[in-house]
């Protein structure tokens, strides 16, 4: 457990925890982390609503494969500003993550995002004005996502759905041909222009220019219970673009295999991350936006190996 987690006060949510996770927790307690309580899933939800000690907890360690649709929604409403550590009850323990040259990466992100915000300022204002005139307010869409080490933050995008559709925090994922998407919104989404406000997230330190894309928290809770290694995506700052997007894995998640391929790419990126790789992916993003179709799984593996030397220690076939 790294220095950033020292002194964390944990609530363990799950009916059983793996020996590996227990070992991780014992190590963490020795370094100053405190387990305030451990509860089965449904008892934990009630504990978070009513127990006086709930205000002491600043991190939830959740056995994500024990959450059904109902408990996922209830947990979403109770997260607040707490961090999430997503694990499988019988899966591997989460790993500490210390990015190589993180200081250099952060300095690059801050300088590049400030420069891009300055250069693209007129375009950002033009898009905001077009949204305001064509579909009214609000111009921006804001949603809570999980950032580095599971810390929640507010992600910003240009609004591409009709205002009435944005009011529902539990609205289903946008799919191809979705009637909720405005005509202007479809254009912005096609070329990734709706993501430009996230340059502000990068400047603030919530995100990086390059890294795994931050998903809706409901998706994080779902897929962390289906795919071993999913929680490792939260080891560092999420990105505006990443290896998965450059390989063509962006947009709608139609089936589990789509997320599996994204996860493989994200974990490959974490293992081989460098400023040089970030530059390659930034330069490759415009070309990726010109490709409308997702790659096949076979082609995705070939492209991933071409981009990186893949050495996956994670069993992604466990369900």
TrEMBL record:
This is Sugar transferase involved in LPS biosynthesis (Colanic, teichoic acid). The keyword Plastid does not apply. Residues 105-289 form the Bacterial sugar transferase domain. The chain crosses the membrane at residues 107-131. It holds the Pfam family Bac_transf. Belongs to the bacterial sugar transferase family. GO terms for molecular function: phosphotransferase activity, for other substituted phosphate groups. It comes from the Bacteria. It comes from Pseudomonas panipatensis. InterPro entries: Bact_transf. The keyword Metal-binding does not apply. Keywords: Membrane, Transferase, Transmembrane, Transmembrane helix.
